[in-house]
Amino acid sequence: MFTSNNACSVPTTFWLTGIPGLESLHIWLSIPFGSMYLVAVVGNVTILVVVMMERSLHQPMYFFLCMLAVIDLILSTSTMPKLLAIFWFGACNIGVNACLVQMFFIHCFATVESGIFLAMAFDRYVAICDPLHHTSVLTHAVVGRLGLAALLRGVIYIGPLPLMIRLRLPLYQTQIIAHSYCEHMAVVTLACGDTRVNNLYGMGIGFLVLILDSLAITASYVMIFKAVMGLATPEARLKSLGTCGSHICAILIFYIPIAVSSLTHRFGHRVPPHIHILLANLYFLIPPILNPVVYAVRTKQIRERLFYILKTGTQPR
């Protein structure tokens, strides 16, 4: 039996509740969640295959898109298989170390994705404001370094989260996590002892990633719009803005769900717990589903290559 009273203990496992309050509907909830996860995997793998097969897409914008696809696959795969196992088999048990690893992957790659969006904003800025030097500034090596920098930032920012829990908070009031995955605050609130350092660090990282990245992206687009408004003809303005459309949609798809989920978690005390958990899980599905759709629909080169591959079933020469 799991400890659920006020006595503190050192757990070896945690117990994830899935969607609290909707346990009787778990088997039915598995249908939309499983379907969305499958669509996300197929869509992002398709993007990776199309860009890999088509040499004309070997450009900075599409390399960044491939990074987004890999990150979305990691994020959704970090949570959805366990959620589906809870829904289908009642496999709610998760080891403490496995819980901390899941926590690291979730928060780390969410941070990495924000960094990639920042790098994509820089790419669009150079492409529109200094097009003559775009290929010389954003070489393949520079794109790789920007991706590596985003990854290292995620590891450096998020690495201390599970370490501080492991080293500072060995005792817990209960092993039951009222969540479907090991979210940082959901675990910290169960701990015995002083959690202020963990809380402050988590909030500080959230500020650095969400607020500063979004401000930097906004600043880049302010400069982009100023440059576009200075173009001579309306056709040139529309063409320049059209190259940013997919990126803007992807940014909104990423930041809006996480902002809504964060706000409801911190300030929506009257919101039912199952709404919190559903919103948190949709955050790991909506961007992975919609990002490939947005880029496939709005990007002519990807759309044409995808249709060609589907039509011929062979790699174009």
Description:
Odorant receptor. Keywords: G-protein coupled receptor, Membrane, Olfaction, Receptor, Sensory transduction, Transducer, Transmembrane, Transmembrane helix. It comes from Carlito syrichta. The chain has 317 residues and is mostly helical. It has one domain: Rhopdopsin 7-helix transmembrane proteins (Up-down Bundle), CATH 1.20.1070.10. It is built from twelve helices and three strands; from the N terminus they run E-H-H-E-H-H-H-H-E-H-H-H-H-H-H. The chain has helices at 26-53, 60-89, 96-129, 134-137, 140-158, 160-168, 184-188, 196-229, 234-267, 273-283, 286-298, 300-312; strands spanning 13-16, 93-95, 176-177. It has a three-stranded mixed sheet with strand order 2-1-3. The longest helix has 34 residues, at 96-129. The N and C termini lie far apart (62 Å).
Mind sketching the topology for me?
Elements: E1 13-16, H1 26-53, H2 60-89, E2 93-95, H3 96-129, H4 134-137, H5 140-158, H6 160-168, E3 176-177, H7 184-188, H8 196-229, H9 234-267, H10 273-283, H11 286-298, H12 300-312
Parallel strand pairs: 1-3
Antiparallel strand pairs: 1-2
Widest sheet: strand order? 2-1-3
CATH topology: Rhopdopsin 7-helix transmembrane proteins
Going by CATH, the architecture would be Up-down Bundle
SSE order in H/E notation? EHHEHHHHEHHHHHH
Residues in β-strands, percent: under 5%
Low-confidence stretches: none
Summed over residues and divided by their number, the pLDDT gives a mean of: 88
> Could you state the oligomeric state of the chains shown?
single chain
Could you give me the name of the CATH homologous superfamily?
Rhodopsin 7-helix transmembrane proteins
Fraction of helical residues: over 70%
